[in-house]
Amino acid sequence: MYCWGIGPTMAPRRNQNKPNPPLAVIEPHIRHIWQAHMTDRKIVLELRKHYDTNKFGLGLTKFVEMRNSLGLTRTRKQAHTPESIRVTMEELQPMYPNAGIWEMISLLFHEHDMCVSRSVIEEYFRTYEAHLVRQRKANRLQRRHFWAAGVNDIWAVDQHDKWLRHGLALHTGIEPFSGCILWIRIWHSNRNPQLILSYYLDTVQTLGFIPMVTQSDPGTENFGIANAQTMLRQMHNSALQGYVQHRWMRTKKNISPEIAWSQLRRRFAPEFEGLLDLGVESGWYNPDNVLQLMVFHWLFIPWLQQELNSYQDRINNSLKRRDRNKILPHGVPNLIFDRAEDFGALDFKVTVSQDTIDHVRTLYITPDHPVFELVPQHLGIFIEECYNDLGRPRVERISIWTVYLSLLDRMRQMDEVPVLLQAHSESNFNMEDELPLLSGLRDLHEVNNYMGGVGYGTGLQDEHLRVLNAWEEDNEPDVEGHYNEIDAEPSVWVEAFSSDEEDEVTHIV
Question: Which PANTHER family match (predicted)?
Answer without folding.
Answer: INTEGRASE CATALYTIC DOMAIN-CONTAINING PROTEIN
